[in-house]
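Each record in this resource describes a single protein on a pair of labelled lines. An example record follows, reproduced without changes.
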Amino acid sequence: MTISSKEYFHLNLKKGVNPEIIISDKSFQKKLLLEFENLERTPESSIDFFNFPLKDHMHQVEIRDLLLSYEIIIDLLEKTDPEKYRIIHKGTPFYLLAMGALMIGDFEKGVFFMDAALSEDKKNNFLDQPAELFLSLDFNDNDQAAYFIVMEIRKIMNEQFKKLNIDGLEKMEIEDISYKLKTLLKQPQLRTLITSFISFIYEFKTNKRMICLSGNSQGSAEPILLHLLKGCVLFESLLKNSEIGKAIKSTTSKTLKDYLNSKEIQRELKINQIQKSANFEGLNPYSWDDLIVKINKLNQCPFNDRAIKTLWGTRNLIGHSIGWPKKPNSEEFEKIYMMILASNLLCLMKLY
C-alpha cells in the first residue's frame, strides 16, 4: 500500500527520526514531488499541502529543525516547476521558515521570510494572516504560531524603553509603535525599514552576549559594527522617506547633515533647541576611541541631541571603515545601541 508524504513523514517522526533527515530523504521527496505535480495551478491548491502532522510532545529542537527544513521543500519545488511554484500560495512555508530562522538567531533571514509570507498573503488576498500580526508586533491576537517570539521582542522593547525613559527619552508605548508599524506595512517601499527595525532590536541581546563571551578587545567586530551601522542607515532611511524628508530630497541630493539642519525636522525631533541659530553638528570622530570620548562628552546635552549626535558620529565612523584595532566592549556597545534605538524611535513616532 502506497502512503502519502505526510504519512511517511509522520511514521518516521514517531520513530524518532529527525525532521530534517526525513525531509532530505529521497523516498519522501519522491512522494512529495508526485503530490506537487498533481496540485492544481491555483493559490488555494497548496493550503493543506504544506501542513505536516506532528507528534505529541515534540522537543523544541525537533520543531526548530522541521521549520528550517521547509527551505529544503520550497527549494525542491521551485527547481521542479518554477511556474507552478510562483502560482501556489507559499505563506505557510515562508512563515514557518521565518520562525525557524528566528529561533536559531538568524534574525535577518527570519524577518525576510516573514515579509515574504506577508507578500504571499497580499498577492493572494488572504487577509488577517499571522505574518502581518508579527511584523506589526501585535500581541492582541494570540492565534499565531510565532506569538512567543512576538512576546519576546516586546519584552526586550519594554526593558529598553524603561532604560531610555530614565535616561531622558519621552515616554513611548509599545502599542503606539505597533500601530505605526501596522500603518507603514501598507506601503511596500517601507517594509524593508520595518524588518530592519525588528531585527535591529531582536539581535541586540545576542550581539551583547557574543562580546561578553569572547572577552577580547581585539579581533573581528563584524557582527557588532554592522548591527550598529544598520541602525544608523535605518534612521537615515526613515528621515528620507518621511513626508518632510521627501520634500527636502526633492530639491537636490542631500546629506544627513542637510536633513538634520532642516528647521522642520529639528522642530519635530526636538533637537538643537538651545542654540537654534547655530548649525547642528556631528561628532566627526577619527577613531573608535575618539568616538567614545566624544560620546561621553555629550552627557550634559539634551537627550534627543545626545542620541542623534551619537548615531551621527557612529555612522560617520563605521560607515567608512569597519577596520579598527579595538572592538567595542559590551558597555560601549549597549550605550551606542540605545542611543541609535532612541533616534529611530523619535523618527518613527514624530515623522510618521
The two ends are 60 Å apart (CA to CA). Residues 330-351 form the longest helix (22 residues). The chain is about 65% helix and 0% strand. Residues 5-158 form one domain.
